[in-house]
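Q: Structure for this?
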Amino acid sequence: MKFGLGKIKGALKGGPGGAEDRTALEQEAAEQAGAEVKKGMKAEESRTGIKSGMENETSRDKPKRQARRFRLQEERGDGEGKEGDEGKEGEERNGGKTGLVFFPAFDWAISPTHPEREERLLYTRDQIFEEGLMDLPEIAEYKPRLAEYKDVARVHFCVPDVPAQATTPHLISAGSGLVLADALMAGEIKNAFSLARPPGHHSMRVAHGNRGFCNINNEAILVEYLRKKYGIRKIAIVDTDVHHGDGTQEIFYHDPDVLFISFHQDGRTLYPGSGFMDELGGPKALARTINIPLPPATPDEGIHHVLDELVLPILKDFRPELIMNSAGQDNHYTDPLANMRFSARGYAKLNEKLAPDIAVLEGGYAIESALPYVNTGIILAMAGLDYSHVLEPDFTPGMFVQASRDRQVLDEIISTQLENWANRDFLTEEALARYGDFYRHKKSIFYDTDMIQEAQEESVRMCPKCPGYMTIDSTGQHRHRSTKIFGVSVPIYACKECQQEAREEYRSKLHDIRYDYIYLQDKKADRYSSYNVKTGQETLL
Amino acid sequence: MLIGIDVGGTTTDAVLIHDGKVKSSAKVPTEPQNLLKSLLSALDAVSRDVSPEKLKRVVFSTTVITNLIAEGKTDPVALLLIPGPGMNPAGYDFPNRFVLKGAVDYRGREIRDLDEKEILETAARIREEGISRVAVVSKFCQRNPVQELRVRELVEEALPGSKVELGHRVSGKLNFPRRIATTMLSAATKEQYLAFLNEILKALSERNIKAPVYILKADGGTLPLEKSSSLPVETIFSGPAASTMGALALTSEGESSIVADIGGTTTDLALILSGKPLIASKGAKLPPYLTHVRAFAVRSLPVGGDSAVRVVENESRLRIDAGVGGETGIEAEIETGTETGAEEGQKKISVGPDRAGPAYCLGGPETTPTDALRVLGLSEIGDLALAEEAVARVGSGLGKTGKETAELILDMASGLVASAVRDMFLEWEQEPAYRIWEVLQEKKAMPKKVIGVGGGARGLIERVAEKLGAEALIPEHAEVGNAMGAALARPTLTLNLHVDTERKEYSVAEEGGIVRLHTTDIKNINNMRSGEAEALAAKLLRARAESFGISEYAGEAELTGSEVFNMVRNWSTVGRLFDVSMQIPAGLIPEWKRGGKA
Ligand SMILES: [Zn+2]
Ligand SMILES: [Zn+2]
Ligand SMILES: [Zn+2]
């Protein structure tokens, strides 16, 4: 490739029709937020052409999609997954680019010395700008936008309301993913990386406050948006953050159409202390949650072993329409909050193999020694460019060796989880036989950042026709104040009966003075109600 | 008296301004092979009857560097790169490129040592190749140039008489590939540029002109001639900058407008927002190079008064990518002459992208928009009978009358310009945002005024404006607006200060070099505040203005950005990083009194 040849951005520009037909530009721009205006406007015809092609493609065999190769990559000699058809689809149309939103939120911090502060992506900015990545013809940079309150309500019961939990930076971080989802679905790009903060994967369905630096769950918001707007059903989320993605797991725990795989440092040695192999999903979605608790000090070798032998085979079998990487970077060997031995190149190679359609930044707090290199590596890998020169100054390949005892642990995890996966239908059948009409479960959740203790009881309708509606009774205790809420959630692919029952359930609680707020999250109708029991006021999103 | 000269692709334009009035103007054809001659004949045309001592200032813009690059007549340069970790350096696809060991990181720490033996071997190979110009560029050299400096030392020792250009002296902005290209182009054009300057100085002294002479840069600022020799690439695209500055001079203060310089073969577009021309967020593009050269956000499209008008079948869609023509636009995303408004298989009109010659009514070979303007009585240029013949020839292919056809031609040409304006505006509107306040900013509003400058503006600009729902304006002297812009532009200057209080040092991107904070009057370095960083920037800018001989404009400097980052390690603050940017923006010299000019 050659620098300086300019962006291909303009390739569709000046085409027939296009902007020509438009009259009041400002009005139009005001109507279409963010990415919709972006590059798409240049040639309406071509865009819709690509879009319909894209729709056909959603059911394709996922692993076939390969990144475009940098011509120098042959020299590297690691040829995994490079079948013959590589890159052709990408080069033939404008969708061959990797979409990137870089939103470092240089004017926002949880608190001045908190790891989630202005400085976090500063050196990453320096590195990726100095590399000139935004100028590459393989990369298209997008401007972030704010997610709407409704996008948040599609996932969360925010206490007391969405604005209280989703402040402007959270909305922009979530919105960055949505901009990229639109670009991806419009066929403008082949894959995307939302390099935005603040993170979100510790946020659960009920949001009483900030947990593990997260208020709202960016990936979950993205999943529900993709389903609602584009009708995508089967989605796989691979959480590559060193911490267990407990928020994402909880949100999709009963959802058989979302495969959630998380590898992380063993919960016995790290926050949030969950993510064990027996957390396999709700009765109707068993083995759609796969946890891989890794021994501390696992290096590239171990993570790639698990990836090759467990994660990729399951993904291939699940055949998702879309793969997301919940891309934390705190497995890095220099991360101050964890104890793993992953390298920048290890991360890049992981993204090359996983070939996610969308990667979303999560944690990673080695802001100087890891992030500039890890992010450069991920961007290059996703763009199909050579990342073999992305090396931390103190890294030499082979400096971390997998302990043989840990290797054994990994092999046991692999065989256990492969078995669970293979038996998923049987396990589900068995579980369904065990429960009656409802599955009920109690749990307690701790919000480390905001020091809130939450007690929850959830119930899921064991519906024979659909994933079943769900209720959550939740009390958040913060010092001497407690807030009690009741939420009812209707899955997007729920049956009519479940939707009807859920609505009745919501109405029946409206006058129950034990609660402060009652919520109805009707994803099927895309209507989100919340009711303040004291004031009697209902809000609809 | 002031003189402004713009050496354009087709014509060289000059004006003589006295007492805020245009005293005389001239247009002479440009001879690409002898720019000096074109420049001097334009100069002579306006200054013939003026005694040389009355001239207070001479400013010119020139395509000399653009032409050298476009025609591949630059000098060979050996490129020594110190990339360190990151992209595969094999992708930096330049001739005579050598990759050296060594590396500096984003904080300016040396993370990998140079290999002096390797440098000496490389120098020996450069000698074998017979190359005497060397450019040394390291990643993050703006944070620490130590490795670039050491390489220069070794190369100069090994290759006596060689000329070594260093990346950190050329640009301190982040973006290594752009810095490579800019440094390489500087090294490759410097000597020929100097020769050109010397010829000009000689010619001026022959004419007894002792007034200070300036050159116009791509960002609409002027630079004393002798200072310009250090960065010749800054003079690329000064043509579009000249016409934008001309539009600025010819409209009221603080106004927002779209500037369309419609020439013979191309139209250059620019935006003036609240009285300030919009600067491209990244540097200029000079296909195939992306550079760090600060330039107006200009867009060029191959449509002008002399564009060839043809009848085409609807399906044969012509699409030409960037790189058409020598004097192309900064954005290099050249709009193609495409056709609109017909059903598949139907015949219709195309305008451009090529020029077959002058307009038919002026004795040219093919129909042009100029002929259409003549037919509709919108211009007096050329022979009416010839124009009617030209337009009728196109019309017969479509089964339309002459007037209908002429309307169609103008509609097509103005439509292309209008959609390029929209594209340019959208691109600006969609610039990335890295801060919350930037995302929350109000929607940007498109200016409601289209200013036409250049020879082809009349007759077309009204239609462009109509399509954009805007008002058209062709100011007096619009046809020499570019030369006026050159005559009236004031100097510009930028200063980007980076302070690292943990390392106790600062650097100025435009100057290179790391300076210890102890040399400043900041008392408590560990506790340095934004105000102090901004004061330091202001002081450095004044000094820089002085060194360029433009102190009188230092008062125009404005703060364009100021950021502070606390560096926190293990939950305590260990230092601060400041980034402060200041500029003397493009503007007009105080001698020019605006108002009532439009
Ligand atoms: Zn994880
Ligand atoms: Zn994490
Ligand atoms: Zn149901």
